From TrEMBL:
One of its GO terms (cellular component) is plasma membrane. Residues 211-411 form the Disease resistance R13L4/SHOC-2-like LRR domain. InterPro entries: Leu-rich_rpt, Leu-rich_rpt_typical-subtyp, LRR_dom_sf, LRR_R13L4/SHOC2-like. It comes from Acacia crassicarpa (northern wattle). Residues 1-24 form the signal peptide. Pfam families: LRR_1 (PF00560), LRR_14 (PF23598). GO terms for biological process: detection of stimulus; response to other organism. This is Disease resistance R13L4/SHOC-2-like LRR domain-containing protein. It is a single-pass type I membrane protein. Keywords: Cell membrane, Glycoprotein, Leucine-rich repeat, Membrane, Receptor, Repeat, Signal, Transmembrane, Transmembrane helix. It is found in: Cell membrane.
Length: 510
């Protein structure tokens, strides 16, 4: 079995699916010399030497010509034998009588490295002749019909006996997802990402019991998410639609889920407690919906989760807090994004005990109290946003940590955050302004005998400092003399992270 990532922008995202996943990968990348899937792919054409008497089914050959003509590839009708000669985008398999059948057709310039036939987007259409390919397992059209908007043809439903992968990505398809798609009961991958599809998600999809990856993101789908129950589903992406209603608790029964993305819809209600069975889940993105609080207690049982993104949900009606041990057990968690969720109360100390945290965004809430001391143990932390909250007290970071995060550390607009004299903030200050927007802690200021007040004058001026008694500061900061190598590592880690946050990808199981 081969898995193929299509990332837009096309970038390698194996990071998310590292060792837990025993299947092999092929990644398509736009900016590298990695060969395309088809070059690696199984069974392209046949060799004259070994296949004396081999021939291609003539009806299928005619059908391929039709499909080629319909995409503006008229040149292809000059190919004497479509299964012979390793034509990119066409894959064939022999039967026991050495007759070759078309099993896969792919169109569209996915990247510079993939040589699938391109489509003429102004006049292309999906030819009905695909129904004359009785062995077809994969049908892949990418950016093919963009300027000739057309519905997804219902005749595709007749390919149900064989079709396993249907990808109609960024094709400008309009209208609803036809019920007939539910007739494709052998599908493993259904990818309709970035079209203009409207109407609701058809319940008929539930008939596709072997589905591994369902990507309907980037459309205009409305109505509630139906009670989907796919026992083998790994990827569910319904993001960037107009879906309403609650997150169905039936999703909790899709036990093999690895990625769940319902972001940027109008979903409301609470996150269902039933998600607790999703032990394989690595990414959950429910951001920019209208979800309400409190956060489910079962979150912490998502033991494989690497990225939890809930930002931009109002979490009303009452004030929602981050439960004290709400994330304990999420030992794999690398990315936690809880910005703009109207969260109140303290940041739990237990958050600093998640050893793999790399990106933490808690900005734009009403969190109060101090920054947990445990945060200084987060050795991999490279991006921390605590800005626009009501936090106070001394920031417990070592010089090394401040240097590691640099501009990815955001602390401005809090009630009374301050830094200790011996912390890394002093060193990293630009001579004209303090990019972190925090002041020197009071104790340190007096210890310092006002010596550095001059250089701090501009820092304080745009702050609304609430003169409160700040906590005693522990300034047992270890100063590292080797800042330079640390920085290099930090930059690399940050690069990897910006990839994880671009989780726009789909999985294709061939
Ligand atoms: C295909 O799906 C439609 C609508 O769901 C249904 O009416 C029809 O009977 C199905 N056809 C086959 C051949 O299964
Ligand atoms: C879907 O969009 C088409 C225009 O492309 C429109 O005519 C139709 O009414 C829409 N259907 C729904 C259910 O919104
Ligand atoms: C969000 O949900 C609340 C109820 O929790 C509702 O009152 C409000 O109208 C919803 N807002 C939108 C934009 O749907
Ligand atoms: C930090 O990241 C490294 C490499 O990505 C990993 O090996 C390590 O387990 C992580 N956690 C800690 C606490 O260093
Ligand atoms: C934080 O805010 C809550 C009210 O939301 C208040 O009860 C609590 O005392 C505050 N805690 C601190 C440390 O300021
Ligand atoms: C400061 O943060 C609060 C949220 O805690 C926000 O409402 C306010 O607009 C922010 N102020 C500025 C000047 O950005």
């Amino acid at each position: 079995m081969m898995i193929l990532y299509l990332c837009l922008p096309l970038q390698l995202l194996t990071l998310m699916f590292s060792p837990h996943f025993s299947l092999s990968f092929t990644a398509i990348m736009s900016d590298s010399g990695v060969p395309s899937s088809l070059v690696n792919g199984p069974q392209n054409g046949f060799s004259m030497k070994h296949d004396v008497g081999a021939r291609t089914d003539s009806h299928e050959q005619e059908a391929v010509y039709d499909i080629m003509r319909a995409t503006g590839n008229d040149w292809a009708t000059d190919i004497p034998d479509v299964c012979r000669g390793r034509w990119h985008g066409i894959e064939c398999m022999p039967d026991k009588d050495n007759v070759y059948h078309v099993v896969s057709l792919s169109f569209g310039a996915l990247s510079d490295d993939t040589a699938f036939p391109t489509c003429d987007p102004t006049r292309s259409y999906l030819s009905r002749s695909v129904t004359k390919l009785p062995h077809l397992k994969t049908l892949f059209f990418y950016r093919c019909f963009s300027y000739n908007p057309q519905p997804i043809p219902t005749f595709l439903g007749t390919l149900g006996r064989t079709l396993q992968t249907l990808v109609l990505r960024e094709n400008g398809h309009v209208g609803p997802i036809p019920d007939e798609v539910g007739n494709l009961t052998r599908l493993r991958v259904l990818d309709l990402h970035n079209n203009h599809l409207n109407g609701s998600i058809p319940l008929s999809l539930n008939r596709i019991t072997g589905l591994r990856s369902l990507d309907l993101s980037g459309n205009k789908l409305t109505g509630p998410i139906p009670g989907l129950t796919f026992p083998s589903l790994n990827i569910l992406d319904l993001g960037q639609n107009l879906l309403t209603g609650p997150i169905p608790s039936t999703l909790g029964a899709c036990l093999p889920l690895i990625k769940l993305d319902l972001s940027r819809n109008h979903l409301n209600g609470m996150i269902p407690e039933k998600i607790n069975g999703l032990k394989s889940l690595m990414l959950m993105d429910l951001s920019y919906n209208n979800l309400s609080g409190p956060l489910p207690k079962s979150l912490k049982s998502l033991s494989s989760l690497q990225a939890l993104i809930l930002k931009g949900n109002p979490m009303g009606p009452g004030p929602t807090t981050i439960p004290n041990n709400g994330f304990t057990g999420m030992t794999e968690l690398m990315t936690l994004v809880l910005s703009n969720m109207n969260l109140h109360g303290p940041i739990p100390e237990s958050l600093g005990q998640l050893p793999n945290l790399r990106v933490v965004h808690l900005d734009g809430n009403s969190l109060n109290g101090s920054v947990p001391k445990s945060f200084k143990d987060l050795k991999n932390l490279s991006e921390l946003r605590l800005n626009d909250n009501k936090l106070s007290g001394s920031v417990p970071f070592s010089r090394e940590m401040v240097w590691r995060m640099k501009k990815k550390l955001r602390l401005h607009n809090n009630s009374g955050l301050c830094y200790a004299d011996k912390s890394g903030f002093r060193d990293s200050e630009d001579s004209t302004f303090n990019q972190y927007g925090i002041k020197l802690c009071d104790e340190d200021r007096s210890n310092n005998n006002g010596g550095s007040e001059g250089s701090l004058g501009t820092i304080v001026q745009h702050l609304s400092v609430t003169r409160q008694k700040s906590e005693p500061t522990t300034t047992n900061v270890v100063s590292s003399s080797s800042d330079a190598p640390v920085l290099v590592v930090a930059v690399t880690v940050t690069r990897l992270l910006s990839l994880t946050s671009l989780l726009l990808f789909t999985l294709i199981l061939l």
